[in-house]
Each structure stands twice: as C-alpha cells, then as structure tokens.
Design the sequence.
C-alpha cells in the first residue's frame, strides 16, 4: 500500500500543490510508494501545453512529466472533473489513469494526504 497525495486546486496561484508534488517526489526518493490523485480544478495540472510565464511560475507539466522517472507509482485523474474542465486523453499528459470512483482510489491506499 502506498501514500496517495490528493490535489484539488489549480496548478498556479497556490503553493500547496507544489508542496504536495514535492512531498510525493520525496516519498518516492526514499522508496516509499506514492501516487497522486487530481480532482476538481486540480486536474488542470495534467493539461498539456501549459504556459505559466504570465504568473511567474514554472510549468507544472514539466514536473509531472518526470514523475514516473522519480518513482511515482501513478498519476490518477477524476474522470468527472476532467470532463468538467474539458480535458481529454489527447489534451492530458500521457500515462494518466482516469477513474470514475474516487472512493475506491482512496480506499486502495494506506495513507491519504489532501493538499490544500
């Protein structure tokens, strides 16, 4: 069983999501299984072609693209939230697992951390 990090806020404007990403990478660096669930506005972290220059932050897309290399077990997205924000398989980063039942995902993990 792993730790699930849940992000439900947009990728820019708040630092809690960045801190959650750092937590997931830190867990994986110490061989602690970690996965990330994106729900609500948080699914926008998974959008391809981000251009955050206007808000003075680095692209979340680049960080998340490296997640598998750092040992993050899975990037999981709430299917309903993706539909709500107009995300499709072609507009999301590759390798994202879509789920329709978040409760099952939460129950599959020993520890759950909510960012925000």
Sequence:
């Amino acid at each position: 069983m792993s730790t699930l990090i849940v992000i439900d806020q947009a990728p820019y404007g708040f630092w809690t999501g960045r801190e959650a990403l750092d937590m997931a990478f830190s867990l994986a660096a110490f061989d602690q299984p970690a996965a990330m669930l994106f729900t609500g506005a948080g699914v926008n972290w998974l959008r391809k072609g981000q251009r955050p220059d206007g808000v003075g932050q680095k692209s979340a897309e680049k960080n998340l693209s490296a997640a598998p290399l750092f040992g993050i077990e899975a990037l999981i997205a709430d299917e309903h939230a993706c539909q709500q924000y107009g995300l499709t398989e072609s507009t999301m980063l590759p390798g994202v697992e879509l789920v329709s039942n978040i409760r099952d995902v939460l129950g599959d993990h020993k520890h759950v951390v909510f960012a925000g």
